[in-house]
Hints:
The chain is of the alpha/beta class. Helices cover 36% and strands 16% of the residues.
Amino acid sequence: MQQINPIELSQWLNDAERESPILLDVRETGEYEICNIANSQLIPMNTIPHRFAELDEDATIVVICHHGMRSYQVASFLERQGFANVINLNGGIARWAEEVDLAMAKY
């Protein structure tokens, strides 16, 4: 399982020469509405088994949750489904708010 920390992801998203990954947020809707990374796609963890076909299995996907455990589980599930380029955001949105976007609301 690949991992990426928030600072590395931020640098990647700001690099115009690199194609941005799909940012897959697997938190619940209420959590997502409080704070999210721009351009992320919300598919709550409990709906992933029914909705993973909405994702491009050839794309690079960074999976996001609050602290990194739910996203790790979803990333593992996607890998078992044949997705080759899945990365877990280590520390999740909580660490993103601490290291990258200090103005982000916390919950």
